[in-house]
Amino acid sequence: MSKRLVLSALAQFTAKTAGRNMTKAAYIALAAGIAAMVVLTVAPAYEAAHHWVDAVLWACLAYFVFEWAVRLRHMAGQGRLWLYVSSSSGVVDAIGALAVPIALVAGVEHRTAWLLSILWVLKVVPGIPGLRQLRRVLVLESGPLLSVLVIFLMVVFLASVAEYFLERDVQPATFGSVPAALWWAVVTLTTTGYGDVVPITPLGRMVAALVMISGLGVFGLWTGILATGFAAETRRDNFLKTWETVSKVPFFATLGPSAIADVTHMLRTMDLPARTQIIRKGQKGDCMYFIAAGEAEVELPGKKVALGEGAFFGEMALLGNSVRGADVTTTKVTRLLVLDLVDFRLLMARHPDLAETIDAEAKRRAQENQ
To answer: So what's the architecture of 250-369 in CATH?
Structure first.
């Protein structure tokens, strides 16, 4: 019985470990290993507890080696061994498992070899969505980013040559060659301003001022390019998520792809917990709601009406009477699609069939509520 339990636990561990993202155990091993590596660099602390520190480091290394071996076996069984080995996650797993042992076998000093355990932090990279988004932005915006990099290098070399020409006679120790002036140019252009190398001639200071202003412009361009790229990627992700939600709403099922895209641009999503009041009777309304998932309850005089997935409400306030006529509350976790008044009118003008459907449903509800 115990053998079956062990095999079952090992199978579950293999299934989880073979996945792309890190498991909780891997995060614990990573945190413990990095903490032990930090203690290793503090001589008094390491001397007082070196047995414990070494034990934690070896245990973490054993875990990552075992994890790597499990993934190799799993991928080999699926016939995708080479695909895994050549992938970024496979390379990171191999580095985490082999870097420290190779250093120790090569004769690197014990405490120095264990510093390579810092490479374990690379294992979290595949599981961070933001980093994958950053990679997409860097690929898509590689052209503009490289153009700004060329501008950066041009300014650095032009400034270093100019300062060498202007300052070499008065400061031969610091500006006696172009390579020596490059340090000043990089520090000044990046606006770090160490102050260890400063031009003293009037023309040299004018060049320094231009370099500092250029540095602000160069890094402003880089920031703007990355911010625009991230904003575009965020809009793309939100559009895809909203498209998927809209396409699942039965009310929009008859619309074509172009119409759904039009609706997707106008709608915004809202996730609400259970027992949250969406609409309060007597308030002025400026939007209507579609239920993408979940359920809401309309409180009418003498009765309550449940609205499920695909239903809509709040349209009465957009069709003439702007005052809400009933309270609406969620009965469970609900995702809503919100259509504002301006977008509502624009959507009705573009899609008359949709307008007729909403108007017919509104008249039917008005008769039921009388």
So the answer is: Sandwich (2.60)
The ranges assigned to domains in the chain are 2-127, 142-233, 250-369
* Helices and strands: H and E segment counts in the chain: 15, 8
Amino acid at 320: G
Q: 142-233 adopts what CATH topology?
A: Helix Hairpins (1.10.287)
Beta strands (DSSP E) in the chain are: 268-272, 277-279, 287-293, 296-300, 303-307, 312-313, 327-330, 334-340
Dump pLDDT digits (tens) for 174-200. Answer: 888 898 888 888 888 887 766 677 888
* Residues 59-82: tens digit of each pLDDT: 999 999 998 988 888 888 888 888
Cα 106 from Cα 69, distance rounded (Å) = 22
d(CA 286, CA 322): 7
Angle at 190 between CA 116 and CA 212, to 5 degrees: 170
Amino acid at 267: L
pTM here is 0.58
Q: Is the pLDDT of residue 3 over 60?
A: no
pLDDT at 208: 87
- Cβ-contact 298, 346 below 8 angstroms: no
Structural tokens at position 258: 């172009």
